[in-house]
Amino acid sequence: MWSDVLEWFDVHGGGVSAFAAILTAVVAIITLIAAGQDSRRRSQPMIVAELRYAPDSDTALDLVVRNAGPTVARHISVEFEPPLDVPPVGADGEGAAIGYVVRRYENPIPMMGPGQELSNTWYVAHYPGGKLANAEPAPERVTVRVKCRGIGRRWLRWSYPIDDKAMTFATSTTSSSSFKGRLASISNSLESIARAVPKRTGR
Predict the structure, then answer these.
(1) How many structural domains compose the chain?
(2) pTM for this one?
(3) The pLDDT value given to residue 34
(4) What keywords does the record list, in alphabetical order (predicted)?
């Protein structure tokens, strides 16, 4: 039996070697193509839409649209589903703050560089009847759909469901010895002094 096997390899060994060489070349080409595609994907821009606490605030949220990728994003389109039922802020500046979101994204953004952010007020807490609510006419839940042109002629698309309760139901504690805690203590002390000092009446 073994002699038959050795004889077969003697006769067909060249063909087997050629087939193995071709198979190795095909695997190498596929590996190179996959590596190139992976590198291209990692080099593409990535537009992220998220809610974030406004700077120095525990009661207001900003809608932030940012380019988290390593390259420039072009022709960025931002849409809301359902659409924001709010009139855009007029030229005189009148209207709800959320109206600036409508006006900002009513047309595509020409470009966003790596790390660039666009921020707008989305949520401002108030307590009508003792119940937490948003003073801005923004929906509690909305899906932000983003589209942009990346490297080459390819269009990139993302979809981000946003729910303000994921942020507004957060809890935290502040130490009285921290910078923020000391500022609150100073503010309370100044208010107490102001209430204790008699007001002067004009003659």
Answers:
(1) 1
(2) 0.69
(3) 46
(4) Membrane, Transmembrane, Transmembrane helix
